[in-house]
Design brief:
The chain contains 13 helices and 14 strands. By secondary structure, the protein is of the alpha/beta class. It folds into 3 domains: 89 residues, Winged helix-like DNA-binding domain superfamily/Winged helix DNA-binding domain (Arc Repressor Mutant, subunit A, Orthogonal Bundle), CATH 1.10.10.10; 125 residues, Nucleotidyltransferase, domain 5, CATH 3.30.420.40; 154 residues, ATPase, nucleotide binding domain (Nucleotidyltransferase, domain 5, 2-Layer Sandwich).
């Protein structure tokens, strides 16, 4: 890349927010153009000018600069009825890359993400519970292996590494089943600093459920709504909040901690205790029906239907209550539900939530549209990987 691009890439926030100098305006406008194309797909210059409010001349200058930096590519000409044929511009998949790390309760995943949100490579390590030392070893070797998958000319385009981990992971030693002493080690671990030292890359951190919400917002159905509630049903249930097309992180970065919401029937019970996969795992273990692989690795849960059906009913009721409660505070357009489960199970869960919400006493609340998420298991890692890309190149 040119030196001009490196200067642009190293900027964490658009300088326009600090003063409208010429350099700041240019970089803000570059982010704006890249973000419009990311959100709407390939766009011709005239359409970019219309959507951005920039002049056609300014858009042409920006497009030339971004093409020179290999961030944009031209698609085939589109001939209209009159005038010159238009040339749609699209993000160059090889324009930038990032690495995403998901730290889960039963496994950790590393992915290599390209500029269009496609997962190029993935690595994973299973465990009974997350141990800090072994995880850092996996990351060090895994990042080196992922970088090795890129050709030498593409390696300088690696924007950084993002990671998503559960909020206060050290407090979950009981449901995770780990050693209290080893789980406590996470309390004093500065993971961002450790990763920077190990990988020599810029590091960005996010709550794992918020990261999943970010992935749906950037690459999935989130673009259908301006304001929506997002649930991710993983080993533990969690979620996120999107307002005005942007993930709302809150004062401490833990906004949208939907797993902590109380549920109907017992105010001491939280959503996490009703709509999490660990609840189903515990029931399977108690019944002596535990499969030989983790549930998120199974392509089908058909053989477990005797336990899956009741769990789906309970999870759907709890999710519907949580969604209705949130909609009483914010008038959400939609509710998106995703998770680490087979696609047919996810669809059944969403269908049940729709029924529960339709039958719930929602007087004074407009019923939001309830839809299925599109990313699934990779959502947390993809959301984490998107953090360096948004920090360096993109805005909303």
């Amino acid at each position: 890349m040119t030196s001009r691009t490196r200067q642009f890439n190293d900027t964490q926030d658009p300088p326009l927010a600090q003063g409208a100098n010429l350099t700041g305006v240019r970089m803000h406008n570059e982010r704006l153009v890249l973000s419009l194309i990311r959100r709407h797909g390939s766009l011709a210059k005239a359409e970019i000018a219309r959507r951005s409010g920039l002049s056609p001349q300014t858009v042409s200058v920006i497009i030339r600069a971004l093409e020179k930096d290999d961030l944009l590519i031209r698609h085939d000409h589109v001939r209209g009825r009159i005038g010159k044929p238009s040339v749609p511009m699209a993000l160059n998949p090889d324009g930038a890359f990032s690495i995403g790390l998901k730290i889960g309760r039963r496994s950790a995943d590393l992915i290599l993400l390209d500029f269009t949100g496609t997962v190029r490579e993935r690595l994973a390590i299973p465990y009974d519970y997350p141990r800090a030392a072994s995880l850092l070893g996996f990351v060090q070797g895994g990042v080196k292996a992922l970088i090795g998958k890129l050709s030498p000319d593409l390696r300088p385009r690696l924007a950084g590494i993002g990671f998503g981990e559960p909020f206060e992971l050290w407090t979950w030693f009981d449901p995770v089943g780990g050693s209290k002493t080893e789980m406590e080690a996470w309390r004093d671990l500065n993971l961002a600093r450790e990763l920077e030292d190990l990988c020599a890359l810029p590091v960005h951190a996010e709550n794992d459920a918020t990261a999943a919400c970010s992935a749906e917002n950037a690459f999935g159905r989130g673009q259908e709504f301006s304001d929506y509630l997002y649930f991710f049903v993983g080993h533990f249930a969690g979620g996120g909040v999107v307002l005005n097309n942007s993930v709302y992180r809150g004062r401490t970065g833990n906004a949208g901690a939907l797993g902590s919401m109380p549920v109907r029937g017992d105010p001491r019970r939280q959503l996490i205790e009703c709509a999490s996969i660990f609840v189903l795992e515990a029931r399977l273990k108690e019944a002596g029906a535990t499969p030989d692989r983790p549930l998120n690795e199974l392509e089908s849960w058909d053989s477990l239907e005797a336990h899956v059906g009741p769990w789906l009913d309970e999870a759907a009721r709890a999710l519907a209550v949580a969604a209705a409660s949130a909609c009483a505070v914010i008038d959400f357009e939609g509710v998106i539900i995703d998770g680490s489960m087979p696609a047919d199970i996810r669809e059944r869960l969403v269908d049940r939530v729709r029924v529960e919400m339709a039958e719930a006493p929602l007087r004074g609340i407009d019923l939001p549209e309830v839809v299925t998420g599109t990313i699934g298991y990779d959502a947390r890692a993809m959301g984490a990987a998107s953090l360096p890309l948004f920090s360096r190149y993109l805005s909303i």
